[in-house]
Amino acid sequence: MLRGKVKEVRGYLLTAFSGSPDGAPPWVSQMEDGDDAGYFGPGSAVWQVNGGTPVLVAGIRALLMQTLHPGAMAGVHDFSRYREDPLGRLAGTVRWVLTTTFADRAGADSGSAMVRKMHGRVRGTYLDSSGQSQPYSAGDPDLVRWVHVVFADAFLDCHRQFGGAIRGGPDAYVNEWSKAGELMGVLQPPTSVAELNDQLAAFTPELVSDERVAEALRFIRNPPLRKIVMPGYRILLAGAIASLDPRYRALLGLRRPWWPAKTLTRIVLAMLAALLGRPSSSEVAARRRLARLVT
Hints:
Oligomer: single chain
Order of helices and strands: HHHHHHHEEHHHHHHHH
Number of helices: 15
Largest sheet: 2 strands, antiparallel
Strand order of the largest sheet: 1-2
Shape: globular
Number of domains: 1
Radius of gyration: 19 Å
Helix content: 55-70%
Structural class: mainly alpha
Number of strands: 2
């Protein structure tokens, strides 16, 4: 009975993250192909951070942060299928991150081009922080930068809080991951923690907490997940909230949990690492490609 439940949960989570119950859909298998090591590699900070379990907390944290920019929130509200197919949207985001991280350069380039093409169709208007109507496109440099710095900040800080030291230090990760920003069209993405913090802080006047944000937060707090995984999800959500800078928690109207959310988050992440297995199927495929290239 217990073994069957474990298998069920594992298959459900792998489907959520990759779109396949075995964690190895065709796009993962394709990472074995290619003629180069990709933009990063086994000794990179990006492989360490993006291949670690703290990214599960970072993903939630990034979603919380993204809601604060009214332009980004308008695109999500008007075009995203997150209400109807939240796991499909999650799997799509995971696919881009892992492909950019572990695939060869051609794979990373084509994956980013596909996302940019989809973003080009996301257009509309939104009310900015002063109440003025503004046109937007998901491919606007300002919005692309916001998404990049929010993801980079979340991935970096959650690894520092829940995963430990980073190879080469935090600046190494920001510098390496700036390539992902370039692939998505970010002009002069941050290449150090100082630059990342400055670019993130520069968005402060544009951030808004309104009813759309409240609606998104209600969904993030209670997504349509199976009951068996909800206790673990709620702990990871609490860990994400606890990890946030207090100024962003205040903007979101959230309070840091009174209970030891970070400690319990570390426990859940350790359990997930044991359940899902490490390294990920994407990293295994990438290592097979690298082994082929040196023979």
